[in-house]
Amino acid sequence: MKDQKIYIIGAGLSGLVAALELEKSGFSPIILESTDKVGGRMKTDQVDGFLLDHGFQVLLTSYPEVKKYLNLPALNLKTFDPGAVIFDEKDSYIISDPLRNPLKVVGMAFSRVGTFLDKVKMFTLTQELKKKSIEDIFNEPSLPTLQYLKNYGFSDQIISNFFKPFFRGIFLEKHLNTSSRMFEYVFKMFSIGHAAIPEKGMQEIPNMLRQQLGTTQIYFNTPVEKIEGNLISLKNGETLEADRILICTQPDKVMPQMQGQFSNPKQVINLYFSLQKSFMARPMLGLIPGEGHLINNLVFMDDVSSAYSSSDRSLLSVSVLETELDEKELIKKVQEELEHISGIKSDFFKFLKSYYIRYALPTIDDLKASIPITECKITDHVFLGGDYLLNGSINAALTSGRLVAESVVLSYTPTH
Ligand SMILES: Cc1cc2nc3c(=O)[nH]c(=O)nc-3n(C[C@H](O)[C@H](O)[C@H](O)COP(=O)(O)OP(=O)(O)OC[C@H]3O[C@@H](n4cnc5c(N)ncnc54)[C@H](O)[C@@H]3O)c2cc1C
Known about the structure:
Layout: E1 6-9, H1 13-24, E2 30-32, E3 44-47, E4 50-53, E5 59-60, H2 64-69, H3 72-75, E6 77-79, E7 84-87, E8 92-95, H4 107-113, H5 116-131, H6 134-139, H7 145-152, H8 156-171, H9 180-192, E9 195-198, H10 204-211, E10 217-219, E11 224-228, E12 231-234, E13 239-241, E14 244-247, E15 266-275, E16 285-287, E17 295-300, H11 301-304, E18 314-320, H12 327-342, E19 350-361, E20 382-384, H13 394-411
Parallel strand pairs: 1-2, 1-14, 2-10, 7-16, 14-20
Antiparallel strand pairs: 3-4, 5-9, 6-9, 7-8, 11-12, 12-13, 15-18, 15-19, 16-17, 17-18
Helix pairs in contact: 1-10, 1-13, 7-9
């Protein structure tokens, strides 16, 4: 097995897990990665004493694959308080645990986001989803989430005050057109686990996968240009001959015949500011309901993990879903919105850095929890991995990495 030339394209979560699984079967793969770090869409920079994740994202501790590949205690996870701080036109209030214990949310607070009937329906939905398996969720007919919520009988009030701002920040699209399967799945994961970040940034997750690798080699700064048959053409002009190729990124860029097969991905802009002191002072997500504003969600990262700021200032992460504004205008408008919700003068929010993430989540019509491993194989030499095969999540990326490796191992068994 050792002499087999197995190349994995991409050192994101799926590529790293694929390498781990191949090693377990005695292979020593080589990962070709275009950037200088592992992690793909999950990376963290260190800037001026702050830890800046590339886009606000969280690990849901209930993801089943997470327990297989990550040593959660070693990540020293810092959890968010469930619920959200809602900043509405008048003031701010907390809705404490709507996805886990809706009946426990104080009546007064709940009445600001929805009706008493919404509260009961929320409770019913939590109970239903706790019992429903992930497989069953992904076998359900798919509806746009907004339609699903209306069919379930939720009022327009709770849809616009809570569901829209909360799930827009997860689906990274404004209209909740994402499949109801993803809604049920994410809702279930929130209701049985916690949203968390590693103490020292999301990059710790791929770093932990990398540390588990033994014989795998990683070639950084090695972008792949094209794959033809069993040949890999690198951007630097070199050609590599492979026994097996695992493409652990959306394949259209390296396989021209796949172009046009994928919908435009979801995008997001993540802006970081520092402020003398957090105005939320709790490890909670902040949401701004309604339309016509730029900020969808915000969080003071050092309220969740103090290691995100080693300076004496707080680190604010703001997510913006869509805008035509250039960066300068965007920063100014976001600072004005921050002044509006906090009462703190806009110039006090010191801009640190922005991340324009053009490929944040794949847009997938038929979301899945898993696929048969035979579907990962597209030719005798080429195999596919990556979240875009299933659904846009950490769990899906880990699952697809495992599946594509199993598919490669199967291709070496005598009957294949
Ligand atoms: C802003 C944002 C928020 C998110 N929020 C959440 C969340 O809260 N919870 C959650 O579960 N998930 C979230 N996700 C999704 C999660 O991060 C992804 O599902 C996961 O990281 C995808 O891993 P992957 O291995 O499939 O792909 P990627 O991470 O995209 O890895 C692909 C790798 O391939 C490399 N590559 C690409 N092309 C080439 C080439 N030609 N040659 C060589 N290398 C190449 C890339 O550099 C990259 O390293 C979020 C993602 C983003 C961006």
